[in-house]
Design brief:
The protein is mainly α. It is 66% helix and 0% strand. The termini are far apart.
Length: 202
């Protein structure tokens, strides 16, 4: 993988919102899928995390594919499950969206940390991002697992080389963090408006 993924991701963000400003399902999921391989760069120990994120994407894609017109935006999908009182089920699309959005929060914050704190190690960047985005939603088992995974994080220089790190790519990463973060924040607002943005692991 090279830095082109960030260039394509920045372009992808432009298509997520409709003309009315609504978050569109397919462009959002397409962007998440584009960023998914970045998890591989953290090391093979993160394969279980990648599989979980991929599962959430697939669940939402299948729901969208069942009726693309009806589920063209994430808000409609969530409202339907809230009205049916299944939104908090671990098998719901709402649950999948909540955790997918948080996973993307983590990635955005992680890359921000790398850009803003060049002196930080990978472990420091990951730990700070985890505390800011995921930790409060995890139970003790998930927190313990994360601590172990972080200890196996690759060297920062090696990681940056693996993603095509350069001055130009860093600019694209910064652009992606800024633009995608606003999309993720909008998703949080939608989920919070339905009272489901506080779902936690057991």
């Amino acid at each position: 993988m090279d830095g082109n993924v960030f260039i394509r991701a920045v372009e992808g963000v432009k298509f997520i919102r409709s003309e009315e400003g609504i978050i569109r399902t397919k462009p959002f999921l397409d962007l998440c899928k584009l960023l998914l391989p970045l998890i591989d760069k953290f090391g093979s120990q993160m394969s279980c995390i990648k599989a979980d994120v991929a599962c959430n994407i697939t669940k939402l894609e299948l729901k969208y594919a069942s009726n693309p017109s009806k589920y063209s935006n994430l808000c409609t999908m969530t409202k339907e499950e809230v009205d049916s009182k299944i939104a908090r089920s671990s098998s719901s699309c709402t649950n999948a969206l909540v955790w997918l959005n948080r996973a993307m929060d983590f990635m955005v914050q992680f890359f921000r940390n790398l850009l803003e704190h060049p002196e930080w190690s990978m472990a420091q960047a990951c730990t700070d991002s985890y505390k800011r985005t995921l930790k409060k939603w995890h139970g003790w088992m998930a927190i313990s697992t994360f601590k172990v995974l972080i200890k196996l994080a690759p060297d920062r220089k090696k990681f940056m080389c693996s993603i095509g790190g350069s001055v130009e790519i860093n600019a694209e990463i910064e652009n992606l963090c800024r633009t995608f973060a606003s999309v993720l924040e909008e998703n949080h607002k939608i989920l919070a408006s339905f009272g489901v943005d506080d779902i936690k692991t057991p």
